[in-house]
């Protein structure tokens, strides 16, 4: 458009500056979004690690470790009649909700505790034992 003299040099320069400023702003927004995504991922990893390992660390940890775990779990810790209550941190609520759904889903995989299923499980246990003994004897070096 500039070569065809549809735009003046001033119009071209002005439009170019606008577009460069817009590109700069978009790049800045993109970096900001990338940083937020990285921070979110790091926070999610820390929360997942905490949720997976906190019980073991609490059972085996020092008093200071136990205190830090309780503080991380939430606020308003109260001890009344030997019972500890903690108001869960907001980041734990989705994990709790998800775990409840998974428990229900996993329970569908468990066979019902009825006599017929107990008999089948006993039969499968016998077959499994025989197969393991057979595999074990086949893996021994021949004399």
How are helices and strands ordered from N to C? HHEEHH
Largest sheet: 2 strands, antiparallel
Number of strand segments: 2
What's the arrangement of strands in the largest beta sheet? Answer: 1-2
Strand % is 5-15%
Report the structural category.
mainly alpha
Mean pLDDT: 80
Low-confidence runs: none
Instruction: Report the total helices.
Output: 4
DSSP helix fraction: over 70%
Number of domains: 3
Q: What value does the Rg take, in angstroms?
A: 32 Å
N→C terminal distance: 92 Å
List the helices and strands and how they pair.
Elements (H helix, E strand, L loop, with lengths): L8 H52 L2 H11 E7 L2 E6 L4 H15 L7 H25 L4
Structure write-up:
This protein is 72% helix and 9% strand. It has three domains: 1-60; 74-110, no CATH class; 111-143. The protein has 143 residues and is mostly helical. The chain has helices spanning 9-60, 63-73, 93-107, 115-139; strands spanning 74-80, 83-88. The N and C termini lie far apart (92 Å). The relative contact order is 0.04. It is elongated, with a radius of gyration of 32 Å.
């Amino acid at each position: 458009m500039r070569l065809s003299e549809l735009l003046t040099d001033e119009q071209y320069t002005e439009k170019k500056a606008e577009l460069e400023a817009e590109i700069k702003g978009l790049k800045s927004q993109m970096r900001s979004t990338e940083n937020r995504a990285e921070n979110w991922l790091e926070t999610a990893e820390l929360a997942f690690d905490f949720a997976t390992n906190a019980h073991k660390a609490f059972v085996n940890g020092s008093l200071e470790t136990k205190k830090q775990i309780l503080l991380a779990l939430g606020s308003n810790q109260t001890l009344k009649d030997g019972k500890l209550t903690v108001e869960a941190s907001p980041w734990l609520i989705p994990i709790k909700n998800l775990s409840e759904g998974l428990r229900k889903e996993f329970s569908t995989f468990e066979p019902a505790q009825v006599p017929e299923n107990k008999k089948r499980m006993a039969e499968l246990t016998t077959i499994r034992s025989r197969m393991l003994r057979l595999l074990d004897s086949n893996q021994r070096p021949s004399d």
